[in-house]
C-alpha cells in the first residue's frame, strides 16, 4: 500500500517529511483501531492511560500533577478526565496525608476490574502491529527512541 496511496500524495519535500507524515498518519490509524476496544468499555484512551498509571502506583495515591507527568499524552485537562473517572466510579479522590489541603487520586476496585477486562484484550491490542515480526517491532521501537533522543 504505502503512505503515498493512503493519503493520495505522490510527492514529498524530502524523506524526513514523508517519514513525519507517515508517523502521524500511522499514529491516527493505530488510535482508531484501539478506540474500538476502549469504546466497548465506555472509556477513552486518556482515561485508560490514567487508570493504568493509578494501578501501577496502587496502593499509593497520586496527585493530578503526578498523573500528568506520567501520561503518554501530556494534557492540561487531567483534572477533568479524573472527574469523569470519578463519576464512573473508577477512581476516587482522597485527602493527601502530607498536606490536608491537597487531594490525591486512587483507583477503585471497579477501576481495577475494568483494567482486568482490558488486560484480557491485550492480544487484540497487540494485533494492531501483527504485520511486524518481533525483530521488526524492536527495530521500530529503537527508531522511535532515536527520534526523541534528539530532544535531550
Structural features, described:
By secondary structure, the protein is mainly α. The chain has two domains: 1-39, no CATH class; 42-124, Arc Repressor Mutant, subunit A (Orthogonal Bundle), CATH 1.10.10. Helix content is 61%, strand content 7%. The protein contains eight helices and two strands; from the N terminus they run αααααββααα. It has helices at 3-7, 15-39, 45-57, 64-70, 78-87, 109-119, 122-126, 134-149; strands spanning 91-95, 103-107. Strands 1-2 form a two-stranded antiparallel ribbon. A hairpin with a 7-residue loop joins β1 and β2 (103-107). The longest helix has 25 residues, at 15-39. The radius of gyration is 19 Å and the shape is elongated. 14% of the residues are buried. The model has no long low-confidence stretch (mean pLDDT 90).
Summarize the structure.
This protein is mainly alpha-helical and 152 residues long.
Main traits of this protein?
single chain; Arc Repressor Mutant, subunit A; 61% helix; two-stranded antiparallel sheet; 8 helices; 2 domains; mainly alpha; 152 residues
Amino acid at each position: 500500500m504505502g503512505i503515498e496511496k493512503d493519503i493520495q500524495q505522490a510527492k514529498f519535500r524530502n524523506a524526513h517529511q514523508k517519514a513525519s507524515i507517515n508517523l502521524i498518519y500511522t499514529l491516527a490509524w493505530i488510535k482508531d483501531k484501539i478506540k474500538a476496544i476502549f469504546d466497548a468499555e465506555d472509556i477513552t484512551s486518556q482515561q485508560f492511560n490514567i487508570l493504568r498509571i493509578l494501578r501501577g502506583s496502587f496502593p499509593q495515591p497520586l496527585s493530578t500533577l503526578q498523573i500528568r507527568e506520567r501520561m503518554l499524552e501530556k494534557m492540561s485537562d487531567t483534572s477533568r478526565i479524573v472527574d469523569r473517572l470519578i463519576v464512573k466510579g473508577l477512581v476516587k479522590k482522597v485527602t493527601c496525608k502530607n498536606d490536608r489541603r491537597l487531594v490525591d487520586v486512587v483507583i477503585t476496585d471497579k477501576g481495577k476490574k475494568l483494567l482486568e477486562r482490558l488486560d484480557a484484550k491485550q492480544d487484540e491490542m497487540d494485533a494492531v502491529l501483527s504485520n511486524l515480526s518481533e525483530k521488526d517491532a524492536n527495530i521500530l521501537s529503537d527508531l522511535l527512541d532515536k527520534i526523541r533522543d534528539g530532544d535531550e
